[in-house]
Amino acid sequence: MTAGPLGDLAGRARDGDRAALAALTRRIQPEVLRRCSRFLPYPRDAEEACRRALDSVARGIADYSGDSLFTTWLYTVVSNSARQTYRSLKSRSAELPAEAERIPQQRDPRTTSVIAGSRVDLLEALDQLERDRPHLVVPLVLRDLCQMEFGEIAAELHLDPGTVRSRIHEGRKHVRRSLAVA
C-alpha cells in the first residue's frame, strides 16, 4: 500500500535505492519537524528529535513493509523519536543541577528547553502512562498527536477499530488524571 509519490519513493528507498532514500528524507523533513514540534515546543529540541527521526527512517526503511501507508509508519517513527528525545533531554537536564539553579523559576514552556529544566506535562503524562499501561500509549499518540484516523491506527497496529477506540479512550482518561495532578 505505497499510495502516491511519497509511498513510491519509500518503496524504492526500502529496496535499496540510495538516491530515493536521500530524496525521501529531504521531502519528509519539514513534516517530520512540524510533527516533532507538537511533542517538543522548544525549536532546538524539536530539531534534535527531527534529526533522530530522519536517522531512524534512514536506518529502518527496510523495516517498512509497505502494508500500510508510508506516513502511518513514519508517524510511529516520529512519535517514538520525539518521546525518546524528551527522555534523553530530561536525563541530561538531571545531570546538570548547577545549570538548572541559574535559570529563573518563571519559564515559558513554549520557548524553554527541557534541557533548561522546563517540564512538559504531556510528555510526563505519557511516560507515566507507558509505565502503567504501555499498550495504551501508541494508539493515543497516533490519534491525538499525529492526528491519524482510527482506521489507519487499527491497520498499523493490527487491531480491531473498536479496540483502538477503547485504548484511546482509556489512555485519555489516564493522561487527564496525570495532567490534573501536575
Automatic annotation (TrEMBL):
Keywords: Sigma factor, Transcription, Transcription regulation
Pfam families: Sigma70_r2, Sigma70_r4_2
UniProt keyword annotation of NADP present: no
Domain RNA polymerase sigma factor 70 region 4 type: 139-174
Cited Gene3D superfamilies: 1.10.1740.10, Winged helix-like DNA-binding domain superfamily/Winged helix DNA-binding domain
UniProt GO MF annotations: DNA binding; sigma factor activity
RNA polymerase sigma-70 region domain: residues covered: 26-90
InterPro entries reported in the protein's UniProt record: RNA_pol_sigma-70-like, RNA_pol_sigma-70_dom, RNA_pol_sigma70_r2, RNA_pol_sigma70_r4_t2, RNA_pol_sigma_r2, RNA_pol_sigma_r3/r4-like, WH-like_DNA-bd_sf
GO process annotations (BP): DNA-templated transcription initiation
PANTHER family xref list: ECF RNA POLYMERASE SIGMA-E FACTOR, RNA POLYMERASE ECF-TYPE SIGMA FACTO
Name the record gives this protein: RNA polymerase subunit sigma-24
Source organism of the structure: Marinitenerispora sediminis
